[in-house]
């Protein structure tokens, strides 16, 4: 027999319709209504731990849980759980069992998620253990309140007001992260101001760390390698100068005195004009290890970025590998090499970065980009889980078949002191946090995949839609279709067949395949990447070209290196292909290119139609906001298609197939477009 309380709970969970009040997106996926006093009186939430994180778990359930009694229990012996938990039906209620308080918090959010999705919890028994130890967001926020590559307004961090004035959004931000398992954040831009390490700024950082702590979130900082010289009055910042390492040791001591659970440093060194150890003839390992030494006594970490390239004659795609592989084995245990998913720079599609797996004796972590620097900013609807999964599921063959990037970085194939995964945040002070309502899904998806990279993009989309919009089946299905099409759409209308980096200079919004700047770096010019000429186009990275293919393990070097086996999706990444080359589809390369661009435009038109059909199922505020962004996206898709096809046609010297949508622009007019978008470096 079911007790009355239980019956009531099941009724609530199973039958309550979701009422769609107008929404501004500020609640993200946490659109839970607080329980009433009467509801609260009907059930009990108890915790065996009284630490701040456990109390937060209890408070969340006290406030939002409508089900039966929940017991939060710590079992210190369950070491294998790490930050994970077990949720178990006890017959009359539920128990969340964890080894650490963070586990209780994640378990509590899991329960709330199941409630939001309307799941039946009778008999539930599930165990969740996170795939990565550190699940970290990188903010590229500057101390002046701007955000490099940020498209959702200014920075959340009000440096001028901190530590005195505390915005309520700090806690809301931490809560959102905790609800999807994110447990660490880097507050400031990798193009870092040395000022962040000044004592007054450290007090501001401490204020944020204090707010984040009960949500289980640790703070990290990006540092400027020249800090000892710039703010410390040391003669230089040479990592082998004892005065420099002493300065860092003292600085680290000061940080931990202020923030005892500080996470560590993220470092962009000798990249795009940033200072680094090479300024003194030292290596990346010398630089990273000097910082690692300072952090070691406190269990702190160095996340050292592998995003390095110089304007030499060497293919940019090869340079990180060339720089880091010879240093393998030379990095201290508490250094993790942070590697962008692809070898160039967060393009709509790239092959995976060949450094993954190539470093055998150094810890590696992935860096994704959630903010859509190269994907239409916060104007385009692009669901990024398929892109993230594409990288994580890529088989590098480094340790034989099945050596996926997920397994190389999560500790399965290469045991590490700490495993980690990171992404550049898309969060700003916009009411809806991310500029585009659907960009929230990318923040959500990163968190969920960092917790469990085996989740499918579809599963994550379903969860997010149910929590964010409604769990009405037909709506979930329709929105999921929109999301699942969106990534291929953007690849098609921007850069199909492995094209890359043909963006407008600097701001990276629109197309500029003709782009050229007198005196500018070749590796920042679109022609460097597309190499269009009267014969064909694409970057020859085979053995007869830059030989970047040789950085991939067999059999990938051969698969990518052979024009007949190279996947269409990466063809122009690895090959200079003649316009008349026969593709797998039977079309010539030129024709295929035209059809892909056109397909991208048509896909966006379908997204628009699918969204408009939902007019009465989505609240009017968010419906209208997304609808108007889709209009921009549709116009931009046509702009991309026309710009690229009209420009490449001047080389291909063939007509655009007559059965596809005709250009509506003149190439000369498109070349005149100069968007005045500020890029904050
Ligand atoms: C933070 C790209 C971006 C830069 C960014 C850099 C990086 O080049 O355009 O804005 O700088 O990547 O990841 O360091």
From TrEMBL:
Domain (Glycosyl hydrolase family 67 C-terminal): residue spans on this chain: 434-659
Start and end residues of each Glycosyl hydrolase family 67 catalytic domain: 118-433
Keywords: Carbohydrate metabolism, Glycosidase, Hydrolase, Polysaccharide degradation, Signal, Xylan degradation
Signal peptide residues on this chain, from the entry's feature table: 1-21
Domain of life from the UniProt record: Bacteria
One Pfam short name: Glyco_hydro_67M
Annotated SUPFAM superfamilies: (Trans)glycosidases, beta-N-acetylhexosaminidase-like domain
Entries under PANTHER family matching the protein: ALPHA-GLUCURONIDASE A (PTHR39207)
Similarity comment: family membership: Belongs to the glycosyl hydrolase 67 family.
Name this protein carries in UniProt: Alpha-glucuronidase
Organism of provenance: Sphingobacterium pedocola
